Amino acid sequence: MRHLLSAADLKLDEIETIMDLAEEMSLVQGRPVKKLPALRGRTVVNLFFEDSTRTRSSFEIAGKWLSADVINVTAKGSSVSKGESLRDTVLTVAAMGVDALVIRHHASGAPWQASQWIDAHVLNAGDGTHEHPTQALLDAFTLRRHFRTTEPGLLDFSGKRIAIVGDITHSRVARSNVLLLNTLGAQVILVAPPTLLPAGVDSWAAAVSTDLDEVLPVVDAVMMLRVQRERMSGGYFPTSREYTIGYGLTLPRLRMLQEGAAICHPGPMNRGLEISAEAADAANSLVLDQVAAGVSIRMSILYELLGGADDSPPPGHREAVVHA
Amino acid sequence: MSQVLLAGADLLGRGRADLLIADGLLADPASAAADAQRIDAEGLIALPGLVDLHSHLRQPGREDAETIASGTAAAARGGFTALLAMANTDPVTDTAEAAEHVANLGRRDGRTLVVPVGAVSKDLAGEELAELGLMARSAAAVRVFSDDGHCVADGRLMRRALEYVRAFGGVIAQHAQDPRLAGRDACCHEGAISGRLGLAGWPAVAEASIVARDVQLAELTRSRVHVCHVSTAETVDVLRWAKARGVAVSAEVAPHHLLLTTDEVVGYDPVYKVNPPLRPAEDVTELRKALADGTIDAVATDHAPHARHDKEHAFAEAAFGMLGLETALGVVVETMISSGALDWPGVADRMSTAPARIAQLTGQGRPLAVGEPANVVLVDPAARSVVDRNASSSLSRNNPWHGRDLPDPVVMTFWRGECTYARS
Amino acid sequence: MTDLGADSRRIVLDADQIARACARMAHQILEANRGAEGLVLLGIPTRGVVLAERLAKAMADVEGVSIPAGALDVTMYRDDLRRQPTRPVGHTHLPIEVDDAVVVLVDDVLFSGRTVRAALDALGDLGRPRAVRLAVLIDRGHRELPIRADHVGKNLPTAADERVSVRLEEIDGVNEVTITREGALDHAVAGRI
């Protein structure tokens, strides 16, 4: 595997390998020596143009537990200050001799562009409103563990119905999850007010609904997305309370869920807005499990990318990057 | 200046004749002097020098991206003998002094006629009228006014501007983009691709709704409006409706909107980032039809050079714009001549006569007849080449055609009788 | 066409011989440890795990107590990770803590010793055993590191270009240990096409 840019980059068997490996990696957490030597001598740079303590720490721990050298670079990249270009920033960091660049950027597509400019492995840690493949993987990993509590032999998500609820338009988590869950065989249903459904959503591999009450009783899992209050000023919805009453996972809605249906949220949560405290803390809430899974999944991915022979392309080679 | 005889050229594709260039004019070939330079134009077509209604020459202010010298050299290479230089320079061309400065630079450094476009509003802010009258009275004789880069979004300001220029026969050229429907962030046609790629969408209605308003304002004020870089089928529909009503509206289309579609954006390469954005194939088809039937009057390049460091950003943060002067005619040949949608007289009209008329350039877009100014371009209808962005007269390299096999028709360009470009 | 396959591949241990070797090793392990106390068998995947389970069962039959058996995957500790595409990782299962335990590593074939070296490193990150011993079904020589087995099912001198294959019923459907000359193997395959 050269890069991990999009959830669509992964085939079903690759997803299963990553998740199985993450199970092994999760055992490291309980050991006295939280170290595996597999990535010794490899250098991973977390190049974050957007603040994210949680994701960055998760990647940092993952790299360190695999004995890689991990460096955090916080790059200023506001669209207003046209200082160092993105290309300059990426090339400067790569010139230090890194094996992998983990990039989080506020603009969609930045990791794709970076992969055109450097030979190192590129891992997308979230680009604008476009994709967040490691989040989708840890969501799927958490869901698989949950489904296996009642179906131990479960291999993929065929026959499972999973709802993603909230600001789909601006959500990279939603886009990556739609792609990954489809590869896993799940049926995805997107639920949002019409103003928060993106252009062309009818062409996505997901059903679309504006009625959460209709969808909740029939799903095996519901993923609540964070809603930014700033969206109110963009005219997407009039008030917080109207959003919550229409699309929030309130206490009454919690009771609509089937027995055993899981609740997910990528975090950070707006308790009381898109998800009630009761739902966040419910027995079938996987929110904390998702957080715990983050390190294991990222260890797994880093190992897949960097744990074997270095397969960097010959100099001068540039792969054509075509988004599916 | 010695005479130049273009022997056996096909005039507008209508028939062979000789053309004699003498003292900056076309003269009777029979009166050619013995020492006239003879150019064998067998197999070549002669067109009136092309006129570009829409170029960004970046001087003054961004001479690192382009200068009047380099931009007009690129224009001559593309077969142009005149171009209109948009006002969004630094400082903005919003006063008579600024306009005269650009005109002077054009006279000094230009390989084509350089006509400054004046801003509609002070500093392009869209609030107060700029000194339109003074710019018109200046030695630069500005007749075309545009805030291009920005939309004159305020209906009342647009109305005032249209009314005001009627006094001297000016025209307001609108960059149609409703800022509330397509803000500064909008960078990709709003549709399936923008939704999937997570890029802020630029819906067609943001263009067509402004054009719909402006043609009605032009009708109300009995003034002339010109629509820059038409990019959508919806706008074409509005233009058809307005022209049928007799509104004095003209329109231009950029070469890139005739051939490139929004699919190009899928790799997030900022060379394809342009305002208005590339649209789906359905729009490209309608634009070609409109150019063919004259609903769109002219091709204008919207040549927008950018220094590398302004393009090498994340897609959403990169500068908008593409180069276009050197490749414009080639793209028009590829999209319009090859399919039979336009013939060579049609191309001469859309790229020379009509733009000259819209810009009121009396010496340009003239028939190839004795006594007319010698603004001529010789083209080889069959020549093709693979575009190399590094082999360019422009100072910039943001060329969306790099690596493509396209017609490369321009062989020689003459401006006022002087050869400004000759293929080696 | 002569069948070259039969001559170049020979069975060095059949099912019975394997069973007897295992039984003998089980007794030896118990004897060396003076009983079952503190013992844990950790098999190196894949076939080491099966052998560890067989040994544990044999020892349990003798002692009358159950012997903990598990698996120790050493992929991450290999010294040749960078020479091949990313290797899949096997499952590690520690039935008890290794601190102060007597860990008996179990593998099918001892060859260069590098796998055992990796296993010792892996164990070091898991805790501090009181002692570590090594039990292998086959010792085929050609050590590249100073490693030796405490309990050996069969010593098998080999040439470096020979291939030793251990097949166990739980995985391969049959119990046998074979040795094949590499070049001859190719001919055998070609002959069958």
Provide an overview of this structure.
The complex is a heterotrimer of chains A (324), B (424) and C (193). Helices cover 36% and strands 14% of the residues of chain A. Chain A is of the alpha/beta class. In chain A, the strands form two sheets. Chain A has a five-stranded parallel beta sheet with strand order 7-6-5-8-9, with helices on one face. Chain A has a four-stranded parallel beta sheet with strand order 2-1-3-4, with helices on both faces. The longest helix of chain A has 20 residues, at 287-306. Chain B has 424 residues and is α/β, with parallel strands linked by helices. Chain B has a single domain (49-366, 394-406), classed as Metal-dependent hydrolases (TIM Barrel, Alpha-Beta Barrel), CATH 3.20.20. Chain B is 29% helix and 20% strand. Chain B has twelve helices and 20 strands. Chain B has helices at 68-77, 96-109, 132-137, 155-165, 192-197, 205-221, 233-244, 255-259, 281-293, 308-311, 328-337, 344-359, and strands spanning 4-11, 16-22, 25-27, 37-40, 45-48, 50-55, 80-85, 113-116, 144-146, 171-174, 188-189, 201-202, 224-227, 249-253, 298-299, 376-379, 384-386, 405-407, 410-415, 418-422. In chain B, the strands form five sheets. In chain B, strands 1, 2, 3, 4, 5, 16, 19 and 20 form an eight-stranded mixed beta sheet that branches. Chain B has a five-stranded parallel beta sheet with strand order 9-10-13-14-15. Chain B is globular and about 65 Å long. The two termini of chain B are 21 Å apart. By secondary structure, chain C is an alpha/beta fold. Chain C has one domain (16-80, 88-159): Rossmann fold, CATH 3.40.50. Chain C is 35% helix and 25% strand. Chain C has a five-stranded parallel beta sheet with strand order 3-2-4-5-6, sandwiched between helices. Chain C has a three-stranded antiparallel beta sheet with strand order 1-8-7. In chain C, helix 4 (114-126) links the parallel strand 4 (102-110) and strand 5. The longest helix of chain C is centred in the N-terminal third of the chain and has 19 residues, at 15-33. Chains A and B meet through helix 3 and helix 4 of A and helix 5 and helix 10 of B.
